[in-house]
Specification:
Layout: E1 2-3, H1 10-23, E2 28-32, H2 38-47, E3 58-61, E4 64-67, H3 72-79, E5 85-89, H4 94-103, E6 108-110, H5 118-127, E7 137-140, H6 145-155, E8 159-161, H7 173-183
Parallel strand pairs: 1-6, 2-4, 2-5, 6-7, 7-8
Antiparallel strand pairs: 3-4
């Protein structure tokens, strides 16, 4: 998953996907392919740690193995491993990881349809048109159904609304149903 811009909720949604897949009794890796450092902060918060966690490469939460600030070389090793699913948190680093996004079984882009942010979606779509295949799905956490349909027709793409979820570590029925729609029969 990548974002049309910085701060649109890529990590949040990747966690939701990873836990959905783990709930299906799948072995899941969640890989940080960006330089935000979010995974280190997640590890500290979840474990209640007060010391530096940069020395660890991985940690586990609720059946998901997190890989912090992963290199392309390490990613290749993970592909050879025994995970059922590898969820890639590309963040806004698509420039460095366009090939990984294009190669994904379910390539996802998250953005906002707010009037003052829609230009980010349009810019992303133009800049990375080579990634916009039929398999690519656009997700929006803040859009109203009618706004998204109109925008989707204008841009000739299908948009999906992400349900409101304050805490991605909590599995709600609505989020579970939404994951079924996005992931589909892939699970």
């Amino acid at each position: 998953m990548t974002g049309a811009a910085k701060g649109v909720g890529v990590t949040h949604f990747c966690i939701m996907i990873a836990y959905y897949l783990a709930k299906q009794r799948r072995k899941v890796a969640l890989v940080e392919l960006n330089s935000t450092g979010h995974f280190g902060r997640i590890e500290k918060a979840y474990e209640g740690l007060h010391h530096d966690v940069t020395s660890t490469e991985t940690f586990n939460i609720k059946g998901v193995t997190y890989y912090k600030a992963t290199s392309k070389e390490k990613l290749m090793d993970l592909y050879q491993g025994d995970y059922h699913y590898i969820v890639l948190d590309i963040g806004d680093g698509i420039k460095n990881h366009a090939e990984e996004h294009k190669r994904a079984d379910i390539p996802l882009v998250i953005g906002h349809v707010s009037d003052w942010k829609i230009h980010e979606v349009e810019d992303f779509r133009q800049r990375y048109s080579m990634l916009m295949t039929q398999r690519c799905k656009w997700l929006f956490p803040d859009g109203k159904k009618d706004e998204m349909k109109a925008l989707g027709r204008k841009m000739e793409m299908a948009f999906h609304r992400v349900p409101y979820c304050v805490d991605p570590f909590i599995r709600t029925k609505e989020a579970q149903e939404y994951m079924k729609k996005i992931i589909g029969s892939e699970v």
